[in-house]
Amino acid sequence: MTESSNKAHASCIVIPDAENTYPLDQFAVPQHYKDDLNSVMIPNGLILNRLEKLAQDIVEDIHAPLVVLCVLKGGHQVFSDLVNFIKQLNTRAGRSLPLSLEFIRMKSYHNDQSSGKVEIIGMNMSNLKGKHVLVVEDIVDTGRSLVKLCNTLNEQGPETLRTFSLLLKRTPHSNGFQPDYVGFEIPDEFVVGYCLDYNEYFRDLDHICIISPVGREKYKEAA
Ligand code: HPA
Ligand code: MG
């Protein structure tokens, strides 16, 4: 696992491939998921260590009051841990980055896939005008939903709009979107845990893991 050398990208930890993940039986995982996972890709402790550093980077970069915007449901855990680290810097490290916290859900416009926008539910969008905004996501895969979200948020006239994603998937389906802050670049595998789900399962798992064929089958959506 090395730091990305591609300066066009936000620098982050690069997880090379699925073979470099950890054996499941070496970690504590919920009993009810033990057959449903192949391996541990990112242990919970490593996620937290990385978020502590990204919180420092954010506090270095941004000095104005900040609206931190959690994209539910998947972003819940990373948002909560990241905000906690920023709060610790504010109380113990002599830093001062006032935060306001917002929570949204995204809904696609089903009849107009090409609109390039999304419907946002859960907040009064006019709160963003003239503000510094940081969007916090769990994962960027194709990049399509984050691009649409940014298009929609930019219409509100924020002073600045930055994006944060815990995970960035290396996939041929990517549209090339690069968040400003990235925790880990991961191989093209379906991952669950740390609030990332498969059909609403696995959010209650602390580590980011690769799902197994058994898990895929067990929690497959009824047709
Ligand atoms: N896991 C969970 N949700 C996702 C993923 C993934 O790998 N990619 C896009 N959404
Ligand atoms: Mg998400």
TrEMBL record:
Swiss-Prot/TrEMBL keywords: Cytoplasm, Glycosyltransferase, Magnesium, Metal-binding, Nucleotide-binding, Purine salvage, Transferase
SUPFAM superfamilies registered for this protein in UniProt: PRTase-like
Record domain Phosphoribosyltransferase: where: 47-198
Reactions that this protein is recorded to catalyse: IMP + diphosphate = hypoxanthine + 5-phospho-alpha-D-ribose 1-diphosphate
Localisation per UniProt entry: Cytoplasm
NCBIfam families in the cross-refs: HGPRTase
Similarity remark: Belongs to the purine/pyrimidine phosphoribosyltransferase family.
Protein name: Hypoxanthine phosphoribosyltransferase
Originating organism: Sphaeroforma arctica JP610
